[in-house]
């Protein structure tokens, strides 16, 4: 399929809860391919449909040797261990901050053919599942930062070259400064 423009911080679609997928059809399979192509072109570990302007509960991931997609995902936390570590986002290009996440999760959902899928992840994969699931609820990782770090992050975002005073900006170049920092 094709690489799609990535919606950047400030775009309202990133703050809206995505709609459940009900039709497992050709359009959905095309969306999954577009997400995959966009994620790979941008060098991200994952990407959710709202990040390309589609408000459906779908994301793709490719990290820690695991790759796939989940539709209408949910996840359960395994154990009480948490991890602090750098997290970035394709919708907040070139920036990352330490974010606390659960260390182990089990995600459940469906694949593009409507078949059940279960993914167990730790470390980066667990972080990715949580990050992309947040996108589907209109939550950005900066919302999960401690108060001091969040204040600094929002200031840095407002000062970023790509940020246009809150006006949604779409980054169209598949070869940009997103780098591997995006989860």
From TrEMBL:
Its cofactor is Fe(2+). SUPFAM superfamilies: Peptide deformylase. Keywords: Hydrolase, Iron, Metal-binding, Protein biosynthesis. Pfam families: Pep_deformylase. Fe cation binds at residues 89, 131, 135. Binds 1 Fe(2+) ion. Its EC number is 3.5.1.88. The active site is at 132. The keyword Signal does not apply. Removes the formyl group from the N-terminal Met of newly synthesized proteins. Requires at least a dipeptide for an efficient rate of reaction. N-terminal L-methionine is a prerequisite for activity but the enzyme has broad specificity at other positions. Belongs to the polypeptide deformylase family. This is Peptide deformylase. It comes from Allokutzneria multivorans. The gene is def_1.
């Amino acid at each position: 399929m094709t690489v799609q423009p990535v919606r950047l911080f400030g775009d309202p679609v990133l703050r809206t809860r995505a709609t459940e997928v009900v039709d497992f059809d050709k359009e959905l399979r095309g969306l999954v391919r577009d997400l995959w192509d966009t994620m790979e072109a941008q060098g991200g570990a994952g990407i959710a449909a709202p990040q390309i302007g589609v408000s459906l509960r779908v994301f793709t991931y490719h990290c820690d040797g695991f790759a796939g997609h989940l539709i209408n995902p949910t996840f359960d936390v395994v154990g009480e261990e948490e991890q602090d570590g750098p997290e970035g986002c394709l919708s907040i290009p070139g920036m990352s901050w330490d974010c606390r996440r659960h260390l182990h999760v089990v995600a459940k959902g469906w694949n593009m053919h409507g078949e059940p899928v279960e993914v167990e992840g730790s470390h980066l994969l667990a972080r990715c599942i949580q990050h992309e699931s947040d996108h589907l609820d209109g939550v950005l990782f900066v919302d999960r930062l401690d108060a001091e770090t969040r204040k600094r992050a929002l200031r840095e975002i407002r000062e970023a070259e790509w940020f246009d005073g809150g006006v949604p900006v779409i980054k169209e170049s598949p070869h940009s400064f997103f780098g591997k920092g995006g989860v």
